[in-house]
């Protein structure tokens, strides 16, 4: 019997090492794919549209025209006075040099009426290889720069849809590595501050780093082989979400593990109980975020439909990593990881002090004195912030998307000084060739159109290039496109379609508004159902959802004030409210889940009011730390020189802090105390017969773990081991079978000779249940 037990003990001790080794090997293997994620990005707006959008149908029709599906690059030549004959000759030479980048013959150089500028349009081929496309634009810019150098005073810039696309991709590719480095550094600093240990912070940081690489590698494979739409925005959000949420899960699990180490001799046993207690809340939290993200699949925009699975997979990888790799690594490291603040067996004084006199205990006591006044005042402040939504900026134009000056925007502004504003992003109309004259007349008669010319013809189709008198993607240009569509659709039998960059962004805006109206109600309903199932109540989920929604609108209102008066953003992405809502509702509910599941657990031990206060006291510190980590990681998005990502970063980081420091810490406890036990209606946490003693010490488990115990089956961290244990000065000592003696072929053990104990280990009572130091019945190692 001893040989199998010793083999099982050694196998159990080796199993955490095996888990860690497998994760490390998997992380190393997939890292090369993770670093190639940028190559799989699609950042042109047309790729985000559904197939039935008019702009998408025009793109399909253009493929039937010679060079019709090209991406125009517009080269602007500008002089502050007037262009000289030498400048115009240089423009002709430059046009010849750029022929190799075009899909069709280049049109002639077009000088402006004031002779201060000239345009060269280069129809570049569509290319799924973003690196190659961007490199071609860069080569064109180098050729243009050489021409400008030979003609002092002449300014040349490459703009148009091709220039904007290349600049956008260039921004994402340059910031990718910096984003990862800054995010990891911020998480490392926060973990050092939280744990004040030179070793402990390394374990969660490495775990979340491996999760990040795994998620990025899997997303790359799906983008390459399963047509998953990934853009720079979703790629950046994936990184901060995995780091932020993964670190949150680590903080919550380690906090419960540290608490259990004061009650259990074996780290494996303490981790098993920590997983049993904190695991359901972490899984429920991750599940809520995953389901919320997958609701984006109900959208029509491919950017939404891609963002949902990207973030959902990131959360899935993060939670699996934090519930497998992290526990195994913590068990391998043992108590010494917490040095110099090692949790001592049988000495939970620090935890008891936090529960009685800590900051969050005092906060709970203050709220308990006047809960109704506090929640009414808090709700009023949040309601005041909601008013800020009235100054939310309008739709962001594509040339306004960059926070720093880029060549494409510079070129567009140069062109607008001498040409109609829409010349750098022309609109296209494709119709049946039999009705070409009627369509041309309708186009030219449309208000907002300053010019139209035929730019392609086949035996079936004809295409017109249309220049608008308003800047691309502006409100006026959207009105012009809508008027143009109304006019050409009225031509019988023409089957006319209107597209181009401005039309694409108009369709994106309309689809974003439609998605917002469909997805938000579904997310609210789904999250409400999850809360109801988790808390086994109706009142509590409704109250929690109300607080989360109020928190979101307050964050959006405060962000609107910041966007307009602090950052001076010219506009916002039309998808921002939906993206912000998904993140803040899903992540905001997270913290309410962590708090209220602990409150329900405590209410079953010590009653509702005391349970609310104790739940806030024991979770306040770790949830606040988790909120700060998540807010800090999303704030990293503000280093991007793109307005839409900076706006998402500020909205989510501010909203998370608001939810963590105000809603979860003040509003929810005040509501729970004011409503009373009815908050759990129609169920009620049954009071345990014997309250749990905070200082209970749990011996290591001595019985085999049942096969059907899910957590033990997954982690295999709590199997019995025939070890002699003692506590000496707060340190756990183990004989590891050293009391066994081999005599001949027979194995004799002190375990078989009687109940051998060290004199300084407390002996259990002879009869009845084991007792804690204060005489209360103590929980056993298998208290789950």
Describe this structure in words.
With 784 residues, the chain is of the alpha+beta class. It folds into three domains: 426 residues, Multidrug efflux transporter AcrB transmembrane fold, CATH 1.20.1640.10; 99 residues, Alpha-Beta Plaits; 100 residues, Alpha-Beta Plaits. 59% of the residues lie in helices and 8% in strands. The strands form four sheets. The protein has a four-stranded antiparallel beta sheet with strand order 2-3-1-4. Strand 9 and strand 10 form a beta hairpin. Helix 8 packs across helix 16. The longest helix has 36 residues. It is found in: Cell membrane. Keywords: Cell membrane, Membrane, Transmembrane, Transmembrane helix.
Tags for this model:
single chain; 784 residues; alpha+beta; Multidrug efflux transporter AcrB transmembrane fold; Alpha-Beta Plaits; 3 domains; 12 strands; 59% helix; disordered C terminus; transmembrane; MMPL_dom; Putative drug exporter of the RND superfamily; transmembrane helix; membrane
CATH T-level fold name of the largest domain: Multidrug efflux transporter AcrB transmembrane fold
Count of the domains: 3
The quaternary organization reads as: single chain
CATH superfamily of the largest domain: Multidrug efflux transporter AcrB transmembrane domain
What integer value in Å does the Rg equal?
32 Å
Kindly state the number of beta strands: 12
| CATH C-level name of the largest domain | Mainly Alpha
Number of helices: 22
């Amino acid at each position: 019997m001893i040989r199998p037990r010793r083999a099982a003990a050694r196998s159990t001790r080796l199993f955490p090492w095996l888990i860690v080794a497998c994760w490390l090997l998997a992380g190393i293997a997939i890292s090369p794919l993770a670093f190639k994620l940028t190559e799989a990005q699609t950042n042109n707006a047309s790729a985000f549209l559904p197939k039935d959008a008019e702009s998408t149908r025009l793109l399909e029709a253009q493929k039937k025209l010679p060079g019709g599906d090209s991406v125009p690059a517009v080269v602007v030549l500008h002089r502050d006075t007037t262009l000289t004959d030498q400048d115009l000759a240089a423009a002709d030479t430059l046009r010849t040099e750029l022929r190799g980048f075009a899909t069709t013959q280049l049109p002639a150089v077009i000088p402006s009426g004031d002779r201060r500028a000239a345009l060269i349009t280069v129809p570049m081929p569509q290319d799924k290889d973003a690196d190659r496309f961007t490199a071609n634009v860069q080569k064109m810019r180098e050729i243009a720069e050489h021409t400008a150098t030979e003609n002092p005073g002449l300014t040349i810039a490459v703009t148009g849809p091709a220039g904007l696309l290349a600049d956008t991709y260039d921004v994402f590719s340059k910031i990718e590595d910096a984003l990862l480095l800054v995010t990891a550094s911020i998480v490392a600093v926060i973990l050092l501050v939280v744990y004040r240990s030179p070793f402990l912070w390394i374990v969660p940081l490495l775990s979340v780093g491996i999760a990040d690489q795994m998620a990025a590698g899997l997303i790359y494979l799906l983008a390459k082989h399963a047509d998953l739409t990934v853009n720079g925005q979703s790629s950046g959000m994936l990184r901060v979400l995995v780091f932020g949420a993964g670190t949150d899960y680590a903080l919550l699990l380690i906090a419960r593990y540290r608490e259990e180490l004061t009650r259990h001799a074996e780290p494996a046993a303490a981790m098993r109980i920590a997983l049993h207690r904190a695991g359901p809340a972490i899984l429920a939290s991750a599940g809520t975020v995953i389901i919320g993200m997958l609701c984006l699949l109900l959208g029509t925009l491919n950017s939404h439909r891609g963002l949902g699975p990207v973030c959902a997979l990131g959360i899935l990888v993060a939670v699996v990593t934090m519930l497998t790799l992290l526990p195994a690594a913590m068990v391998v490291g043992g108590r010494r990881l917490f040095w110099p603040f090692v949790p001592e067996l049988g000495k939970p004084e620090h935890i008891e002090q936090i529960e009685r006199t800590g900051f969050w205990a005092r906060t709970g006591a203050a709220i308990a004195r006047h809960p109704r006044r506090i929640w009414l005042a808090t709700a009023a402040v949040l309601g005041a912030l909601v008013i800020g939504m009235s100054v939310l900026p309008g739709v962001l134009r594509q040339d306004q998307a960059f926070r720093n000056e880029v060549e494409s925007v510079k070129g567009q502004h140069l062109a607008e000084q001498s040409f109609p504003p829409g010349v750098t992003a022309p609109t296209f109309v494709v119709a049946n060739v039999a009705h070409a004259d009627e369509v041309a007349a309708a186009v030219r008669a449309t208000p907002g159109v300053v010019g139209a010319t035929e730019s392609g013809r086949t035996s079936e189709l004809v295409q017109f290039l249309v220049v608008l008198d308003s800047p691309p993607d502006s409100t006026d240009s959207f009105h012009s496109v809508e008027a143009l569509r109304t006019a050409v659709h009225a031509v019988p039998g023409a089957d006319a379609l209107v597209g181009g960059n401005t039309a694409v962004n108009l369709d994106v805006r309309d689809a974003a508004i439609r998605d917002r109206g469909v997805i938000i109600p579904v997310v609210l309903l789904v999250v409400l159902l999850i809360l109801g199932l988790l808390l086994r109540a109706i009142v509590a989920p409704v109250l929690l959802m109300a607080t989360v929604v109020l928190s979101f609108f307050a964050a959006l209102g405060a962000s609107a004030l910041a966007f307009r008066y602090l950052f001076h953003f010219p506009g916002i992405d039309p998808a921002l409210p939906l993206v912000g809502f998904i993140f803040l509702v899903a992540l905001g509910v997270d913290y309410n889940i962590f708090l209220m599941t602990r409150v329900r657990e405590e209410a079953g031990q010590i009653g509702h009011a005391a349970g609310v206060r104790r739940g806030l006291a024991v979770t306040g510190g770790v949830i606040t730390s988790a909120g700060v980590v998540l807010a800090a990681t999303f704030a990293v998005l503000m280093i991007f020189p793109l307005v839409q990502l900076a706006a998402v970063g500020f909205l989510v980081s501010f909203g998370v802090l608001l939810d963590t420091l105000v809603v979860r810490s003040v509003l929810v406890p005040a509501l729970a105390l004011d409503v009373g036990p009815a908050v759990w209606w129609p169920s009620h946490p049954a009071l345990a017969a014997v309250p749990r003693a905070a200082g209970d010490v749990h011996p290591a488990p001595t019985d085999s773990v049942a096969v059907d115990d899910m957590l033990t089956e997954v982690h295999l961290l709590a199997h019995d081991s025939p070890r002699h244990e003692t506590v000496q000065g707060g340190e756990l000592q183990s004989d590891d079978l050293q009391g066994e003696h081999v005599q001949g072929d027979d194995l004799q053990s002190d375990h078989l000779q009687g109940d051998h104990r060290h004199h300084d280990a407390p002996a259990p009572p002879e009869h009845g249940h084991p007792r804690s130091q204060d005489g209360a019945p103590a929980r056993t190692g298998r208290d789950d």
